[in-house]
Every structure is written in structure tokens, then in C-alpha cells.
Specification:
This protein is mainly beta. The chain is built from three helices and 48 strands.
């Protein structure tokens, strides 16, 4: 039965390739996978998905794209590509023969990928790692010696470690509840251990939407959704710094009691965990008093709070209204998201993480209702060409003239109402362009969308723009009808993707006119520094003024002389990590008795100028 299914898949793939072979692909595009191989990446838009496509590597050795694919002889296994046809191959037949190894929940870990897989019937589904070679692909640890640990939610927490959720014998049998607890690993068996025995909500653990975000790295911490192993609070916001002592629940946000006997409370429906410049996490949460509203946390209980009750009052069932948060994106020092306004409905909102700075930006759908205007339902993509892109619903009434309705189309904003506009009417009339997966690669923005309404569904064809006001260009038509292009990834400046209609791996090499190899090359590396740390490290020496430090070398303290009032003093070690910060120093004397011996950079910021000098601590 299995062989016949695989054979049918192979024949289907070959029949599709026959269609593709008759087509002329655009210049710079090629198919990397051979005939008879079916790419099995899911078309879900979720960050975490069981069948993912992941780019990993480094500047020195280059980058590779990892994905899952199936063929008749080996079933579904891990594949890799260096961007060439010759360099696209199965990494390893993890479960030898026709049986699939169940590679799933793959994520990047520096120049490697980590994932779950099964190598034989006795070992179960466990933690694996791969550098893209057969020899460098192996099981890290058999976590559950009597079954499968089913690890998922892999999230790199610092330069050398990642966390994840997994089962072991104790967590699977504790209190007769099957749970996944929090683990940490450096990619070796010796460096893999249980971090905290808390019940972690992880990808695949419940029927969440495509957009449910379970983990968010902020600097060198990870925020995640969890409960105690005794299930006392429901799923609430937790944080970890990679140590057991630094792993804890931040707050019981939803205090609604669901079990009078034990006093257990309900979960707070946390979602859209969003990294705010490696300083804080922005998210939505439900509380009994305010409903679902925007929240923020700096990783401390006192720094975890609701930003604003954007939709106060209660509904007809006497339950609190809630604005909610959807497709949160950080842009220009603020967070933009879809939220609810009592008058204009669900529209584009913004927050600077303060109550006063949280408000509605723009009313996309101006069609009138009894309460005001209709919902614009903005779905935010990414920053490109100095603005933030999204799609928005203008309305579907083809007869309306005030306002004119264009359907669901592409918009962008500069953060002001005046600077928010419809970018294009890609699907004429009131047809929906269904744009999604905005991805900036080599100075151009790619996305999947449609410029016509196919019979009964969406088409998901590949589009590109080179500047914010350029009308979108359709890159190609793979097949007649629906392409279902998805999983757009940046692999060292080229676009790689796949398609439901043609389940192959595609690579597209394109550079826009006037391409700048300095300005238009996006970083492929994880960033752990805050905005202040990045500014201080990247500041050219010529742009910073000298500052006198004394005594230097110093032991327990040093003093500084700057010609202006200093707003803050920051001390940075040789790795670029901020060791000490003093806001609004009352004197020019700084206590450094806790610093290790070494050489540090001292920055003094006056608000107008930056001063610096090297400090030697002995």
C-alpha cells in the first residue's frame, strides 16, 4: 500500500515536471530538485510548522536551505541545497529504506538545523541535528528511553544554546498528565538537559491558528507560554535566561478561577509574542477585567503590564470587550498591529509601549456602519523601502462610489495617517489580492498574491516590487491556474521557495536596477544586542568624542570628565555586551568594584553627543 502511494506521488511529481519542462522560467530562476522528488514543506504561514524550510549557515562557509522531501526509494527525509542543482540532495536516509523518518519542527541553530526524527522502531522520535552532511547528521540524545520525546519549539537563546519542549518518562507519567517540559541544549548529548519541569505549550500541541507564536527570543532570553507541572495557572507568560533559577512565570494575568477545589486559574490566551528590539516582548493577553489587550514585559514581574485597555467596557454577555492583537510588527521604534477601535472597527494601530502612545493610526475601510465605519482587517508584513507594508480590506461593494471599494489590497504606512496609502489595486475591481509572506531579499520585496480571482480559490503567485511605489510585477506563472507559491526564504540574496502545484525547490537570482551590495544586502545572522548596544558598537571612532577617564587603570571606581551634562553611562566588554549602565548619574564617579579584570569601553551620552574612552580594570 505504502509503495503504491509513493509511486503515485512520484508519478504526480513527474507529470507536473513535464508541464514545467514545457514552460520558460524567467531569467535567473531554476528548479533545484530532481524529477521524482516531491518537496513536502507545509504551506502554513506559521513561524513554527511541522514541515518547515530553513536557511542556515554562516558568512565564511556560505548558506544552505534545509527542507523535507520524499521519493520512492527513501520515503520522506531531510534534504539540503547549496543553491545549485548538483548541491541539492538528500542529507541522510535517517530511517533506512522506504520508511519516512518523520523529520519535523526544524529550526536553525547557527550553521546547523535541529529537528525531531526517528531512525528505527525502537528508538522513537528524538532530538536530531544536521550540518547538511551525512556524517554531521545524528541523534543528539535519546531523551525518552521508553518512548518518543517528540521535541519541538526549538528556539536559539544565545550564541551557543537552544531551548525546546520535550517529553521524558517523568513528564509523560507525572500526575497522570502527558506533558512536555522545558529543555536546553548546545547540540551535544553532554550539553542537553532538563531546564525546568513546567508544562510548555509548544507547536503542534493544540489546534491553534497559523499565526500562534509560542516562543520569542528577546536578546539572550526567551519568552514562552507555559503552566506549572501541577497546572495551577493555565498557560501564562514565562521567561528563561537558560538557567533554572532564571526560568519562571512572570505573572498570573488571567485570575479567573476554573477549579474551586484547587484554586487553579485560567490561561490568559497569550499570542503574538513579538521581540521589541531585544529589549522587551510585546504580546496580547486576556485578563478578567479588560479582555484581550496589548501587553509588554521586560522579563521581570514588575515590568510586565497591560499597555492600554483599547476597548473598555463589557459586551452583551457582561464579559469584557477586548481589542486584541494581530500580526504585530516592529517598525521605526514602535509596534504596529491590527487592533479594535470602538468607532472604526479593526484597523491599523500603533504602540510605543505606553498608554498615551497606543492608538489607532488609520481607518482603511471607510464604508459606514451604525457604529462608525467597517473593519479594515490589516495584516502586517514587513518593513521595506522605509515604510511598513500590509494588506487591508477597503470593502467589497462594487457599486460604492463614496468611498470607492477595491477589495483586499496592498497598503503601506510611514506611521502617520497621511503617510498610509493603498500601494496598488493589484486585483482590479473588488477582487482580493490575498497578499502574504512579505519578504525582503537583495533590496526587493517578494510576496505571494493574485491579480485575478480564480474559480473557487486563491492562486498564490509570486510577485515582486523594487520600490514602495512600483506596481507589483508578477515574477512568473508556474502552471495554468493556481500556483500556490509559498515558504519564501532568503538564501544569501536569492529567493528560494516551493509550490503546492509544483512541489519542487525553486531558486530565483535577481538584482534590481541600481542594486547596492552594501545597502541592499540583508543580514542573515541572529542579533542579540539592543538598539543601544548596536549603536555603541557600530559607532565609528571619528564620530565619538574623546572623554577623560581617571584613574586609568582603575580598581574600585573611576571618574569621567565630559563638557556636557551626561544622560547615561554605559560600560561595554570586549564582546560587545553591556556590563553596566547608569542612568542620569548624580556625580562623575562610577563604582566598578564588581567588574572583572580586563579592558572595557566606556560611553557617556549627553543626548546630543557621545563620548568614549577605553578603561583598564585591574
Amino acid at each position: 500500500m505504502k509503495k503504491s502511494i509513493l509511486l503515485s506521488m512520484s508519478l504526480l511529481a513527474m507529470s507536473v515536471f513535464a508541464k514545467v519542462s514545457d514552460m520558460v522560467l524567467p531569467q535567473g530562476m531554476e528548479i533545484l530538485t530532481p524529477a521524482g522528488v516531491t518537496v513536502t514543506v507545509e504551506d502554513s504561514r506559521s513561524v513554527d510548522k511541522a514541515k518547515n524550510m530553513v536557511v542556515a549557515g554562516d558568512k565564511t562557509n556560505g548558506y544552505k536551505v534545509f527542507f523535507t522531501a520524499s521519493e520512492n526509494a527513501h520515503g520522506e527525509e531531510l534534504w539540503v541545497s547549496d543553491g545549485t542543482v548538483a548541491g541539492t540532495k538528500m542529507v541522510k536516509d535517517i530511517f533506512p529504506g522506504e520508511t519516512s523518518s518523520g523529520v519535523a519542527w526544524m529550526q536553525r541553530f547557527n550553521n546547523k538545523v535541529v529537528f525531531q526524527a526517528q531512525s528505527d522502531v525502537d528508538t522513537g522520535t528524538e532530538l536530531w541535528i544536521s550540518d547538511g552532511t551525512e556524517a554531521g547528521t545524528y541523534m543528539v540524545m535519546d531523551i525518552h528511553i521508553f518512548g518518543s520525546s517528540n521535541p519541538s519549539g526549538f528556539t536559539q537563546i544565545n550564541e551557543n544554546q537552544f531551548i525546546f519542549a520535550a517529553k521524558d518518562f517523568e513528564s509523560e507519567t507525572y500526575n497522570e498528565n502527558v506533558q512536555r517540559w522545558l529543555w536546553i541544549s548546545d547540540g551535544t548529548e553532554a550539553g542537553t538537559q532538563l531546564l525546568k519541569d513546567c508544562e510548555v505549550l509548544h507547536p503542534g500541541s493544540h489546534a491553534a491558528s497559523d499565526n500562534a507564536l509560542h516562543f520569542a527570543r528577546v536578546g539572550r532570553k526567551v519568552f514562552f507560554k507555559a503552566d506549572t507541572k501541577d497546572q495551577e495557572f493555565g498557560q501564562e507568560l514565562w521567561v528563561t535566561d537558560g538557567t533554572e533559577a532564571g526560568t519562571f512565570m512572570l505573572m498570573d494575568i488571567n485570575t479567573s478561577v476554573v477549579n474551586e477545589l484547587t484554586g487553579a486559574t485560567a490561561g490568559s490566551q497569550i499570542d503574538w509574542l513579538t521581540n521589541f528590539y531585544n529589549e522587551k516582548v510585546f504580546f496580547q493577553a486576556y485578563s478578567i477585567d479588560h479582555g484581550t489587550e496589548p501587553w509588554v514585559s521586560d522579563g521581570t514581574p514588575e515590568g510586565t503590564y497591560m499597555i492600554k485597555d483599547m476597548w473598555p467596557g463589557v459586551n452583551a454577555s457582561n464579559l469584557p470587550n477586548g481589542s486584541g492583537v494581530f500580526t504585530a510588527r516592529v517598525y521605526n521604534g514602535k509596534v504596529y498591529f491590527r487592533g479594535h477601535d470602538e468607532t472604526v472597527g479593526e484597523e491599523l494601530c500603533v504602540s510605543d509601549l505606553t498608554e498615551a502612545g497606543t492608538q489607532t493610526v488609520f481607518d482603511i475601510n471607510k464604508n459606514p456602519t451604525t457604529a462608525g465605519t467597517n473593519n479594515g482587517f490589516p495584516d502586517l508584513f514587513c518593513e521595506f523601502d522605509g515604510v511598513l507594508f500590509m494588506k487591508g480590506q477597503t470593502g467589497g461593494d462594487a457599486t460604492s462610489t463614496d468611498p470607492v471599494n477595491y477589495g483586499l489590497e496592498l497598503f503601506y504606512t510611514d506611521g502617520t495617517a497621511e503617510g498610509t496609502k493603498m500601494q496598488s489595486d493589484l486585483n482590479p475591481g473588488v477582487g482580493h489580492n490575498a497578499a502574504w509572506e512579505g519578504t525582503v531579499i537583495s533590496g526587493s520585496m517578494y510576496f505571494r498574491a493574485q491579480n485575478a480571482v480564480p474559480a473557487g480559490s486563491q492562486s498564490w503567485e509570486l510577485f515582486r516590487i523594487d520600490s514602495k511605489d512600483e506596481f507589483p510585477v508578477k515574477v512568473m506563472d508556474l502552471v495554468e491556474g493556481q500556483d500556490f507559491v509559498h515558504s519564501l526564504r532568503n538564501m544569501a540574496g536569492d529567493v528560494v521557495f516551493t509550490s503546492k502545484a509544483v512541489p519542487s525547490l525553486f531558486r530565483y537570482n535577481y538584482r534590481k536596477p541600481g542594486f547596492d551590495p552594501v545597502k541592499d544586502v540583508e543580514s542573515m545572522e541572529p542579533e542579540y544586542r539592543t538598539r543601544d548596544e548596536q549603536t555603541s558598537i557600530q559607532l565609528p571612532h571619528s564620530a565619538a568624542k574623546d572623554m577623560k577617564l581617571y584613574p586609568n587603570p582603575a580598581s574600585n571606581y573611576f571618574s569621567f570628565d565630559a563638557p556636557e551634562n551626561v544622560e547615561n553611562i554605559r560600560i561595554i566588554d570586549i564582546t560587545g555586551k553591556e556590563i553596566l549602565r547608569i542612568a542620569s548619574p548624580m556625580t562623575n564617579k562610577v563604582d566598578i568594584s564588581r567588574l572583572q579584570k580586563g579592558v572595557y569601553t566606556v560611553y557617556a551620552n549627553s543626548g546630543k553627543s557621545v563620548y568614549r574612552n577605553l578603561l583598564i580594570v585591574k
